[in-house]
């Protein structure tokens, strides 16, 4: 019910309504956050940077690597590059140790505060290939939950563990808990809980190549390949049941994101580096593969400095959905040796740099995917101790 209808009943409510109209609207400014790593074989340190984006000039400025928004070290058991970063509740960047050895780190971008929760129970399943995704938390009282497909070891069944913001009625002052601003006096904390009743229907030898959340907010679609099998399955987080949909697989790799403007899932192309692709949302009750859309080379929306790079020097890429048809691609690329490398401290050799591109998508009249708008792009070097197996990722919040 609207505020006006609630306030129609009395004089006091009328005064409150006038006061509310005079009060300026509260707007939340979003920012682009970039996660980088800096470490060696013994210790890996992760940093989160708030990037300065010049929308008018279309430039994303390099972060000050010496002054990150926050910094934390991964547990030695993580082995570097095993941390998985996801966005939750519109303001939190969650870092999960895929090996289950280190604590779960949560950076609150609004409060600029870093907290730690218990480690992931088990480890990300080999059959899950790092499957971790955020869905609606229907089984935990609303909000969101991070679902991670885990196992306790090789030849052990896999199941989902869910991380959510939970209230502890037995909280003590000495525990690592803090009060929720919306519920004063109650203590909340980040908690893992097993939520799956049945193991996934695919074999452990099958690797998850793609996954996406259905627009219903609670159904996770998963595509697998290898192991003499493969196909696409779905898991209903409310009913806690798996279902097989067919031998087909989703056209992207890693996570695909639903965009309401396109009415489709969008992700990085499964086979061609530097491209994004879209497909219709799969039906929860149908076995037919969704319609596949033409791909877009997102180099076409990059700035001239980043688009001039050679694709065969780009090692990895990640994609993040920003909402309203906007996406952010982050690539890790090798740089060739230059004459100025020695003077800049590079020792005369090449290095590694990250390319960040923010762009929008739409369909043209022929139903092909194309750039709707180019907002910004930028490229800057990574720390010398960058772990090759880690892919930098950006978040919009």
Architecture overview:
The chain has 397 residues and is mainly beta. The protein folds into two domains: 30-73 and 300-339 and 348-396, no CATH class; 82-168 and 187-250, TolB, C-terminal domain (Neuraminidase). Helices cover 5% and strands 47% of the residues. The chain is built from three helices and 28 strands. The strands form six sheets. Strands 19-18-17-16-20-21-22-23 form an eight-stranded mixed beta sheet, with no helix packed on it. Strands 10, 11, 12, 13, 14 and 15 form a six-stranded antiparallel beta sheet that branches. A four-stranded antiparallel beta sheet has the order 5-2-1-28, with no helix packed on it. Strand 26 (351-363) and strand 27 (369-381) form a beta hairpin. The two termini are 28 Å apart. Residues 1-25, 288-309 are annotated as: Disordered. This is DUF1618 domain-containing protein. Residues 7-16 have a biased composition (Basic and acidic residues).
Give the topology, please:
Elements (H helix, E strand, L loop, with lengths): L2 H4 L4 H12 L9 E8 L4 E8 L1 E2 L4 E2 L9 E4 L9 E6 L3 E6 L6 E5 L4 E5 L5 E2 L7 E5 L7 E8 L7 E9 L10 E3 L2 E12 L12 E7 L5 E8 L2 E8 L4 E6 L5 E8 L4 E6 L5 E5 L16 E2 L6 H4 L6 E10 L2 E10 L15 E13 L5 E13 L11 E4 L1
Task: Please tally the helical runs, counting DSSP H or I stretches of 4 or more residues.
Answer: 3
Indicate the CATH topology of the largest domain.
Answer: Neuraminidase
Q: Per CATH, which architecture of the largest domain?
A: 6 Propeller
Low-confidence segments, given as residue ranges, are: 1-25, 174-185, 303-308, 341-348
Kindly state the percentage of residues in helix.
under 10%
Q: What is the CA–CA distance across the termini?
A: 28 Å
Alpha-carbon Rg, integer: 22 Å
Pairing-aware structural class of the strands and helices? Answer: mainly beta
Number of strands: 28
- CATH class designation of the largest domain: Mainly Beta
Major sheet = 8 strands, mixed
Q: List the strand order in the largest sheet.
A: 19-18-17-16-20-21-22-23
CATH superfamily of the largest domain: TolB, C-terminal domain
Q: What is the total domain count?
A: 2
**Coarse shape:** globular
Biased composition (Low complexity): 300-309
InterPro entries: DUF1668_ORYSA (IPR012871), Quino_amine_DH_bsu (IPR011044)
Organism: Oryza glaberrima (African rice)
Biased composition (Basic and acidic residues): 7-16
């Amino acid at each position: 019910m609207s505020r006006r209808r609630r306030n129609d009943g009395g004089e006091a409510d009328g005064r409150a309504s006038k006061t509310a109209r005079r009060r300026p609207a509260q707007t939340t400014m979003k920012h682009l956050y970039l996660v980088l790593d800096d470490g060696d074989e013994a210790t890996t340190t992760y940093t989160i940077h708030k990037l300065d984006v010049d929308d008018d000039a279309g430039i994303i400025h390099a972060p000050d690597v010496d002054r990150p928004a926050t910094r934390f070290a991964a547990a030695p058991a993580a082995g570097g590059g095993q941390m998985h970063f996801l966005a939750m509740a519109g303001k939190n960047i969650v870092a999960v140790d895929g090996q289950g050895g280190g604590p779960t780190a949560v950076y609150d971008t609004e409060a600029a505060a870093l907290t730690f929760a218990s480690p992931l129970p088990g480890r990300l399943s080999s059959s899950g290939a790092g499957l971790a995704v955020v869905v609606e938390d229907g089984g935990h009282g609303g909000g969101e939950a991070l679902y991670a497909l885990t196992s306790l070891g090789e030849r052990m069944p896999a199941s989902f563990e869910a991380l959510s913001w939970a209230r502890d009625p037995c909280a003590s002052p000495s525990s690592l808990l803090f009060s929720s601003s919306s519920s004063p006096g109650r203590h909340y904390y980040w908690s893992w809980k097993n939520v799956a009743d049945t193991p996934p229907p695919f074999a452990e030898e099958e690797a998850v190549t793609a996954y996406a959340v259905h627009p219903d907010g609670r159904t996770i679609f998963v595509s697998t390949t290898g192991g003499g099998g493969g196909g696409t399955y779905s898991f209903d987080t409310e009913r806690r049941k798996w279902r097989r949909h067919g031998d087909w697989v989703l056209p992207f790799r890693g996570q695909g994101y639903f965009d309401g403007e396109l009415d489709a899932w969008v992700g990085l192309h499964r086979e061609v580096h530097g491209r994004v692709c879209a497909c219709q949302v799969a039906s929860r009750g149908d076995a037919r593969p969704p319609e596949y859309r033409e791909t877009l080379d997102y180099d076409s929306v990059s700035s001239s400095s980043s688009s001039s790079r050679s694709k065969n020097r780009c090692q990895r890429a990640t994609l993040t959905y920003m909402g309203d048809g906007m996406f952010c691609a982050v690539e890790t690329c090798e740089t060739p040796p230059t004459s100025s490398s020695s003077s800049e401290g590079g020792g005369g050799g090449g290095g590694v740099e990250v390319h960040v591109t923010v762009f929008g998508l739409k369909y043209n009249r022929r139903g092909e995917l194309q750039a709707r708008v180019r907002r910004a792009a930028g490229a800057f070097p990574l720390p010398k101790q960058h772990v090759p197996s880690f892919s930098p990722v950006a978040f919009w919040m």
